[in-house]
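User: What would this chain look like folded?
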Amino acid sequence: MAEGTFNLSNINVSKTLKSYLRILKLTKKPSRQEFLMIAKVAGVGIILIGFVGFIIYVLLTEVPKWM
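Assistant: Here's the prediction, encoded as structure tokens.
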């Protein structure tokens, strides 16, 4: 067997599932206001990363043509 293979004998599935369920019981559904704030922040982050990528693209492809 390869060293990196997945071995189910070392995992206690029941214990793992119980810990996942315990975490899910502690969570709550976000309010509409919380959801909208998270969506806005994520959207701004996506746009910002896209803008940075565009700037890098322009710097690496268009600027060398001018020199």
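The helical segments are 13-26, 32-61, 63-66. If you want, I can go into more detail on any region.
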